[in-house]
């Protein structure tokens, strides 16, 4: 969302990013003192009047916050719904939300949906294949389509040629494809100084990574990262560690310190320091743009898939949950990319 806003600004369009109080609070502790308490937590009447005055036509974007569309309509702002998952994945969710695809599905059933390859139940997003009607994740994912028909635009973070399902969706929505929204330095360099996303979920170990990568032969490094949310089991981490240790390749492995580092085999980091580097976070685009990367072992989150596609990197697919499983199928059978599934990994 923020990177799309940056592109709008480059076209001379004034943009404002609005978020909830909860989301705007810092995610990580800082050494700064907390802000002073206020006795006026709600807008005054004059502030409310200013906020509700008639506005010139503008955009508003939302993802799972379906209430934002109704707010935009209330204040006369033409709303655009911004989806950050693929059209194919949202095609599945749409058919579930409309009751066309009835749940639960039997494991042996094949699912046929417009403009998609035939899908096994195990290739559907995990909230659908592992259906739990009381799941909050299922609820928020499917209900995002309740009022989407009222949007003036439906925006996807993909490019048109990637998914034929765009044409089907365009028959009932005003669809715009604006992706991939990655820094233009790695695409067409249309924006000056557009080199990164402007934020990191965790502190990147930039100096250590750059120092280690320097001097490695081209095409000799396997890059391994499962994003910020996937939670591999301890036995999966240990088997992967043994595979990397026994391979003929160098490797750079992103292992989150808070949840994953303890799952590595004892002494693994020390025993593989000549051929491997384990870090807690790094700028993924910087890694993937290196000629020394031979392949990317990925969880198949859409951002990672789009980055690898944009930079022409071979993907080894190890999806865990949510849309990752369907994305892996798309990489293999729809996107025409270099991708290979390494195993069926499921997380409930």
UniProtKB/TrEMBL annotation:
CDD domains in the record: GT1_Gtf-like
Electron transport listed as a keyword: no
Keywords: Glycosyltransferase, Transferase
Gene3D superfamilies in alphabetical order: Glycogen Phosphorylase B
InterPro entries the record matches: UDP_glucos_trans
SUPFAM superfamilies linked: UDP-Glycosyltransferase/glycogen phosphorylase (SSF53756)
GO terms assigned for molecular function: quercetin 3-O-glucosyltransferase activity; quercetin 7-O-glucosyltransferase activity
Record has Glycosyltransferase as a keyword: yes
Family (UniProt): Belongs to the UDP-glycosyltransferase family.
Protein name: UDP-glycosyltransferases domain-containing protein
